[in-house]
Structure prediction request, 355 residues.
Amino acid sequence: MTRLQEVETKLERIRDFMSSRGLDAVVLNRTINFQWLTAGADSHVVIDTDTGAVRVVITADSQHIITNNIEAARQEDEEIGDLPFEIDFMNWHDENPEAMLAQIVEGRIASDGPWPQGAEILDEPLARLRWSLLEPEIARYRELGRITAQALGEVAREIEPGMSEHEIGAKLAAKLIAQNVIVSVLLIAADERIYKYRHPIPTDNRLERQAMLVIGARKWGLDISATRLVHFGKLPTELAAKHQAVCQIDAAFISETRPGAAVRDIFAKGLAAYEANGYPDEWKLHHQGGATGYAPRDYKGTMECPEIVLENQAFAWNIIAMADQTEVLSTDEQWPMLEVEYAGKKMARPDILVR
Prediction:
């Protein structure tokens, strides 16, 4: 499937959505929806904003990008290229998105956000159009997983006792940014901070014996999260046992996530694994993740979650649930692995790197 074919398939999904709801147009403001529709193009300028510097308007027979003269040329040259979008723009000092929209469409409009005024906000139903990934998206996801795992492995082998968490985080971020990966989450913990905090934002705390590296990375609009642990010197028996339990629980979530499975049932199996491994209440200290893809979490897994796993849907335990297999994305052939067993099947999960 070419990039053009991918975009045309997604435009067809949107137009089917419009037809089913009697809509004359859909407006996409969010960067993740822009990236999804355009097969990886980017609309952001300011990283920490949910909406981009351009908007997309899809009607029954056309698709437009609304922006200003600051962004128009770069969007055409570097992001959109030959994709079948008309780029409509005004000078930044005269910019009037409402006037541009009125020239494109009148009638009933749905949006993924508060613009345009009066539009029906259907962010959640529109998000569902993204959940089942196409083959090119899966290929891009694999590449993002490879890049992320490789960066984590390289940094884990490069760091030394005495380095601050800020220094470790800077090395990790630099490797990813150099490959056009946006760092959306960066958590680094050394020694006692690993056990004290579930979200250890980097500090000046200096590494002595062990470090935890956590990254949330985004490329082509796709999100992935991964964690690695490194220990200097002989691995304590207690730490090895805890990590064994973590891997057993991880295997339960991965194994149970397959197309057609109820998310509440997956969650229940995960909680049973916590109890079986001696940590019945540990799950209460942090959510267990959930569906991902173009959003860090499309929804979180809970005992009350009503969702069903779709074919080719990504989940935050770094997998894609395919019809014939559940594929783990963040693998690294150079990283030491720990073999665990769940429901009679063996699975390799990342071990602690001992240096």
Summary: The chain has a mean pLDDT of 96. Residues 135-158 form the longest helix (24 residues).
